[in-house]
Amino acid sequence: MVQTKSHFFTPACLRSARRSWAGKLLFLLLLLHVPLAGEANKEGIGVVLSGGAARGFAHLGALQALEDYGIVPTRVSGASMGAILGAVYAAGVPVNRIYSFAREQHYLLMYRPSFNGALFRTTFIEKMLDHLIPNINTFESLQKRMYVCITNLNTAKYEIIGSGSLKDKIVASASIPFVFEPSIIDSFTYVDGGLTNNLPVEPLLDSCKYIIGISVNSIDRTLSQEEVKGVGGIYRALTMVVAANEEPRRHLCSFYIEIKQAEKFSLLDFGRIEELYAAGYQATVEYIEKHPDIMKLAHLKN
Residues 232-250: what's their mean pLDDT? Predict the structure, then answer.
């Protein structure tokens, strides 16, 4: 029970006050000032990073812009590319270090043929993680609390993992069906978490005072007939699927940053990382300028 320090608000006084309209209004105002138990236990800033394949590199620009304004997330949740970059960020690797590493990679090495239900193997992703976070193998080893969303093909449901082995869950979360071979974990088959939950805000709802959602999957632009033919049509359909499951979750975020310029890039535009980074940075700065209330998160502790 919440107790007030003022001697004016005894139980008898409150019962009496509720008998009049003015008293009822006063009683309501008092209730509004009593913090809920769940809210009192929330602290810090959570950030949710959507999937989006190569478009996900825009997240790096967004994270850097947030930090430049003094807004530093303490918990991270992500799917697909958001899970990869989010985990490295949660390990304490500076954003500029991740960006420099990403620019130096030869992404053609990613396309190593697979004969296991997909076009390519996931070896490149595994080696990238081993290079960036070589001594971190569990969620518990990270500096920030991290959650990864993966899709269980057997149960047709998403799962959000925040403990135990780390890298196998990240690889599973980034395994786009038919593009990268699926991951087998504990006798279940897992693929890209973005298929079922591309903005996994759920694990942050009960623990974070503020949640920033960042998405790179805008589908505002109308495409021409030529743009939706062949592979372009497949990309468009995939983006529509993940955008649809993002929609209800964006409203659960305290702040939602949509990097609309990312739509100009394909899911496999790994050769345009500089442009994607710039798009993420610019979109975040513009958002902060249009929503100055986000600055209450600057230098927030915990």
Answer: 84
Judge contact between 50 and 44, C-beta under 8 A.
Answer: no
* Strand partners for 183: 190
* 3-class secondary structure, 287: helix
Average pLDDT, the chain: 85
Show the tokens assigned to 205. 């709802």
- Helix (H, G, I), strand (E, B), or coil: what is residue 250? helix
* Per-residue pLDDT at 77: 98
- Per DSSP, what are the bridge partners of residue 255? 212
- What is the rounded distance in angstroms from the CA atom of residue 233 to the CA atom of residue 199? 23
Q: How many helices (H) and strands (E) does the chain have?
A: 11, 8
Give the separation between CA 25 and CA 228, rounded to whole angstroms: 58
Residue with tokens 């991270």: 76
Determine phi and psi for 74, rounding to 5 degrees. Answer: -110, -15
Q: Would you say residue 208 has pLDDT above 90?
A: yes
Query: What are the structure tokens assigned to 23, written together?
Result: 């008293």
Q: Which residue has the higher pLDDT, 261 or 6?
A: 261
257/84 Cα distance (integer angstroms): 19
